[in-house]
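Severity: low
Component: inverse-folding endpoint
Summary: output formatting inconsistent between runs
Steps to reproduce: submit the following C-alpha cells with default settings.
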C-alpha cells in the first residue's frame, strides 16, 4: 500500500506520516517533504526512485508521470484497468495527501512576477483532482486538520465511501479556491480588477440558526481568517441579522481613530452615535438620539466595557453588544440578560478591528454587480471647497468629518445632523432628500434635541434650495455635501442668505 505525501504546509506531516507507516503504508514523497521525512527517520521513497524518472526543469515536472497518475486513477474494480496496471508495473496509490504552493502568501510578500508565477502549483492540483475523481478507491487529504480524523477512520474501519466522498468534496473546494485566487490576482494586476470572470470564494465559519427569516438557511463565510481569529462570541449565538447589523455598526465605529466611538444600529441603520473621550460618555450621548429605536438594537463600542458602563447599558434592552474588550466585572453584570448577545472583535483588546475589503458586490437576480469598495478619506473633507461666505470653525470641521462619514455609510437618501461629536438626528433610506431632512428634524423634536448650531451632511447633492431653507429654520450652522446639482447656485445663495457655512466635496457617496 502506498501513500503519497507532498505538502507545502508541513504542519503535522511528520506525525501523520509516522501513523500511516505504522498502519502498513509505504510513503512516497517529493522535494522538501521527502527531505523532512528522512530527517525524522521516516523511510520515505523519493518519487524519482519510484518512477525512475528525474525531476525536470527545476522541479516543474516531477509527479506528472504515468506511474503516479496511473496508480492514483486506475479503477480497482475494472478488469481492463487492473490488467493495464499490471502490464506497466503501476502499483496502487491509495492515499494522496497534498496541499499547494503558497501562491497567495507569495503575492503578499513580493511584486516580482517571475517569483509569483513559479508559485503556481501544477503537479499538486493534478494529483488532487486525480485522487478526488477516483474517490471510490483513493483517499485524498488536503486539510491539515483532517490528519487525525483520517488516521482514526483507517484504524477503526471507517474509511468508508461516505468518508472519502467528503474528502473528495473538500479537495475540489481546495483547488477551486486556489485557481480562483490566481485568476483574481492576475486580473487585479493586469486588467485593473475587471476580468472576463470574477470569483468570490469564502471559507465557512459557522452556520446560523436561520437566515433573515426562520424559513431561510444562513451561513457565515469569510474571505481570509478575520472572523475565526478576531471575532469571538462571549455570550449567545450570532444570528444572520446580528452579523449584518454588526457590520453596519462596526463600519461606522471603526471610522474614527481618535476618541471612543459608539454606534447604535437598528435594522442596518444608525440611530445613535457619539465620539467622546470615554466609552461611558459616548454611549450616554449616543443613546439620546433615538432611545426608542435603540431598544433591542446593536451597539458597537470602539473601546473597553467596564462595570460602570455595563450598569448603564443594562438599564435598557440591547440585543447585541460588540466591543474591543470587557472586564470580568462587566460580563458579570450581563449574566442575567438572557436575550443579550455579547461579542469581542479586537486584536489588541483595546480598540475594535474590522477588515476593509477593497471590493464590494451585490446580488441581483441572475447575477451580481461588482465594484471598488467606497471609502471616505479625511482629506476629502479637509480639502472640501467653501462655497458660501461663512467658514466653519475648527470644532465644526470635526463634526463635519463625523457627519459626512456617517452619511456615506448609511442608506441613501441620507441626511445627518451632528453637534459636539454627537448624532442628533438622521434620516435615511428615503426616496426624497427633503423627506429625509423632515423625518430627521421631526424625530429630533420628539426627543427634545436642539439642532441649533449643528452640522448637516448629505451623501449626495441637494437638488434644490428647499433643503437648505429647512436646515436654516432649525438653526443648522454648517452643511457639507458633494455638490453637483444644476441648481447649485440656488443652494449657495440660500446658504449665504442664512449665513450657513456650505462646503462641497465633489465626491458622491450613494449607498443603495
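Observed output (run 2 of 3):
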Amino acid at each position: 500500500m502506498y501513500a503519497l505525501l507532498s505538502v507545502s504546509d508541513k504542519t503535522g506531516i511528520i506525525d501523520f506520516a509516522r501513523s500511516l507507516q505504522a498502519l502498513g503504508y509505504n510513503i512516497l514523497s517529493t522535494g522538501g517533504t521527502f527531505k523532512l521525512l528522512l530527517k525524522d527517520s521516516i523511510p520515505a521513497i523519493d518519487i524519482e526512485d519510484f518512477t525512475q524518472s528525474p525531476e525536470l526543469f527545476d522541479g516543474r515536472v516531477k509527479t506528472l508521470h504515468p506511474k503516479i497518475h496511473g496508480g492514483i486513477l486506475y479503477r480497482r474494480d475494472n478488469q481492463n484497468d487492473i490488467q493495464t496496471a499490471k502490464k506497466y508495473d503501476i502499483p496502487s496509490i491509495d492515499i494522496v495527501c497534498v496541499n499547494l504552493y503558497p501562491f497567495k502568501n507569495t503575492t503578499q510578500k513580493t511584486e516580482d512576477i517571475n517569483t509569483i508565477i513559479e508559485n503556481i502549483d501544477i503537479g499538486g492540483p493534478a494529483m488532487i483532482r486525480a485522487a478526488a475523481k477516483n474517490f471510490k478507491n483513493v483517499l485524498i487529504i488536503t486539510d491539515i486538520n483532517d490528519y487525525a480524523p483520517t488516521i482514526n477512520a483507517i484504524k477503526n474501519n471507517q474509511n468508508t465511501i461516505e468518508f472519502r466522498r467528503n474528502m473528495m468534496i473538500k479537495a475540489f473546494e481546495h483547488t477551486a479556491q486556489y485557481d480562483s485566487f490566481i485568476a483574481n490576482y492576475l486580473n487585479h494586476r493586469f486588467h485593473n480588477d475587471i476580468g472576463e470572470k470574477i470569483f468570490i470564494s469564502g471559507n465557512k465559519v459557522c452556520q446560523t440558526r436561520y437566515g433573515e427569516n426562520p424559513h431561510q438557511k444562513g451561513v457565515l463565510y469569510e474571505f481570509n481568517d478575520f472572523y475565526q481569529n478576531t471575532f469571538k462570541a462571549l455570550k449567545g449565538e450570532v444570528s444572520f441579522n446580528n452579523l449584518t447589523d454588526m457590520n453596519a455598526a462596526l463600519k461606522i465605529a471603526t471610522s474614527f481613530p481618535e476618541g471612543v466611538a459608539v454606534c447604535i444600529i437598528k435594522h442596518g441603520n444608525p440611530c445613535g452615535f457619539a465620539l467622546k473621550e470615554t466609552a461611558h460618555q459616548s454611549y450616554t450621548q449616543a443613546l439620546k438620539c433615538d432611545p426608542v429605536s435603540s431598544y433591542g438594537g446593536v451597539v458597537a463600542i470602539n473601546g473597553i466595557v467596564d462595570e460602570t458602563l455595563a450598569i448603564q447599558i443594562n438599564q435598557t434592552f440591547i440585543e447585541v453588544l460588540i466591543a474591543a474588550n470587557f472586564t470580568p466585572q462587566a460580563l458579570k453584570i450581563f449574566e442575567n440578560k438572557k436575550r443579550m448577545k455579547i461579542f469581542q472583535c479586537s486584536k489588541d483588546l483595546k480598540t475594535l478591528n474590522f477588515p476593509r475589503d477593497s471590493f464590494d458586490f451585490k446580488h441581483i437576480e441572475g447575477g451580481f454587480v461588482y465594484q471598488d469598495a467606497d471609502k471616505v478619506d479625511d482629506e476629502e473633507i479637509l480639502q472640501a471647497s467653501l462655497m458660501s461666505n461663512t467658514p466653519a470653525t475648527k470644532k465644526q470641521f470635526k463634526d463635519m468629518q463625523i457627519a459626512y462619514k456617517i452619511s456615506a455609510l448609511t442608506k441613501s437618501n441620507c441626511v445627518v445632523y451632528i453637534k459636539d461629536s454627537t448624532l442628533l438626528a438622521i434620516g435615511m433610506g428615503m426616496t426624497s432628500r427633503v423627506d429625509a431632512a423632515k423625518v430627521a428634524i421631526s424625530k429630533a423634536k420628539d426627543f427634545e434635541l436642539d439642532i441649533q448650531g449643528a452640522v448637516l451632511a448629505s451623501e449626495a447633492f441637494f437638488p434644490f434650495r428647499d433643503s437648505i431653507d429647512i436646515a436654516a429654520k432649525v438653526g443648522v450652522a454648517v452643511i457639507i455635501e458633494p455638490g453637483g446639482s444644476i441648481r447649485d447656485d440656488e443652494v449657495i445663495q440660500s446658504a449665504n442668505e442664512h449665513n450657513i457655512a456650505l462646503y462641497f466635496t465633489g465626491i458622491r457617496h450613494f449607498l443603495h
